[in-house]
Design goal:
- With 284 residues, this protein is an alpha/beta fold.
- 38% of the residues lie in helices and 13% in strands.
- It contains eight helices and seven strands.
- It has a seven-stranded parallel beta sheet with strand order 3-2-1-4-5-6-7, sandwiched between helices.
- Bound molecules: ligand LOHRUJSQ and NADPH dihydro-nicotinamide-adenine-dinucleotide phosphate.
- The site of ligand LOHRUJSQ has 21 residues, from helix 5.
Length: 284
């Protein structure tokens, strides 16, 4: 049984974090953030709003999206809310159409929605495997393709940032998500070349352990050791990730494409990473 813990920051705290960028950096730009009803997506959307952007946010659960939108509107920013699943290509096409109708443009897509469950790979069901691949590879792909088609057709530039994970040492217990995220990273590198002629940049941010409510999906036993997953021996915070997104999406990142920025306290180099708990074999 997973203990419920309070990870992450309140909306009020997110609104009051010190900004590391100029407050009009994204003035008049339209930013679409998937999975903005919680955790990283919410923090990213609020930060873009505080930097002058207009927001479109999507996810499956409308109540959580409306709560994020209410917070975003406190900054004075416009925010449209779109309840949908990224797993359905038709819903993604409809989403991108609606965002263009509502806002008249799109400048930045943050492909943040995602998630997985911890389980030894040998026990995955077909349905479980497909759920994770649909959520973390197919969904982000549908979003990228629809956004890029509109940018190509409108003749306007765009920037995509995909949130992935620290996959370079593999990650026991979440093999399905490692496969999906590796797919997104190499898809992004390929699209960075194919879509450069349209003025579309495609990059990724790979977060290490970040304190969000999404962490509640992991068993207590595993989560208790997550601060040992990197040489800094701690969790990162949501702003570590939202700052990387703003760097890549904004003018500072204008010559960067096909890149992965790893924001992980060194997790890619050192640390324990047993997402489903440490197997007996590795205890001695
Ligand atoms: C040092 C270690 C580092 C740790 C960090 C690793 C890096 C990543 C971190 C994070 O991503 S933080 C958290 C992000 N948020 C989440 O992960 C959200 C929670 N997860 C999910 O929502 C799901 O896992 C999902 C698959 C994305 C949910 O999809 P959906 O709602 O369609 O799934 P379900 O209908 O619930 O299930 C479908 C299918 O999947 C199998 N399954 C689901 N949960 C489990 C489980 N806990 N254990 C085993 N199998 C599971 C199962 O086959 C389900 O089918 P049914 O049995 O329900 O018919
Ligand atoms: N926190 C961390 O340490 C790390 C997180 N990540 C990744 O960062 C991203 C955000 O994670 P985090 O904020 O921590 O976790 P959360 O679980 O809080 O956020 C995931 C968000 O994605 C949305 N979502 C899930 N499935 C779908 C779907 N099919 N269609 C649309 N929206 C969907 C969820 O909303 P709803 O259920 O309402 O649809 C939710 O708001 C995820 O991709 C995660 O895997 C990667 C590495 C580390």
């Amino acid at each position: 049984m997973t203990q419920d813990v309070t990870f992450g920051l309140s909306d009020e705290a997110l609104l009051n974090l010190p900004l590391h960028f100029n407050p009009d950096l994204f003035k008049d730009q339209v930013v679409l953030v998937s999975g903005a009803g919680s955790g990283l997506g919410k923090a990213i959307a609020i930060q873009f709003a505080r930097l002058g952007a207009r927001l479109a946010i999507c996810g499956r659960r409308i109540e959580r999206l409306e709560a994020t939108a209410a917070t975003i509107r406190k900054t004075g920013a416009r925010c449209s809310v779109h309840a949908m699943t990224i797993r359905d290509a038709a819903q993604v096409e409809q989403l991108i159409d609606t965002v263009w109708q509502d806002h008249g443009r799109l400048d930045v897509l943050i492909n943040n929605a995602g998630g997985q469950f911890p389980q030894p790979a040998i026990d995955y069901s077909v349905k479980g495997w497909n759920a994770v691949i649909d959520t973390n590879l197919n969904g982000p792909w549908y979003m990228m393709q629809q956004a890029a088609r509109r940018w190509r057709d409108a003749g306007t530039a765009g920037s995509i940032v995909n949130i992935v994970a620290v996959i370079w040492r593999g990650m026991p217990g979440v093999a399905h998500t490692c496969a999906a995220r590796a797919g997104v990273i190499y898809l992004s590198k390929t699209l960075a070349v194919e879509w450069a002629p349209f003025g579309v940049r495609v990059n990724c941010v790979a977060p290490g352990v970040i304190a969000t409510e999404g962490m509640n999906v992991y068993p207590d036993e595993a989560r208790a050791e997550f601060d040992r997953s990197n040489p800094m021996k701690r969790f990162g915070d949501v702003q570590d990730v939202s700052d990387a997104c703003c760097y890549l999406a904004g003018p500072a990142g204008k010559f960067v494409t096909g890149e992965v920025i790893t924001v992980d306290g060194g997790h890619q180099l050192w640390g324990e990473q047993w997402t489903a708990g440490r197997p007996d074999y590795f205890k001695v």
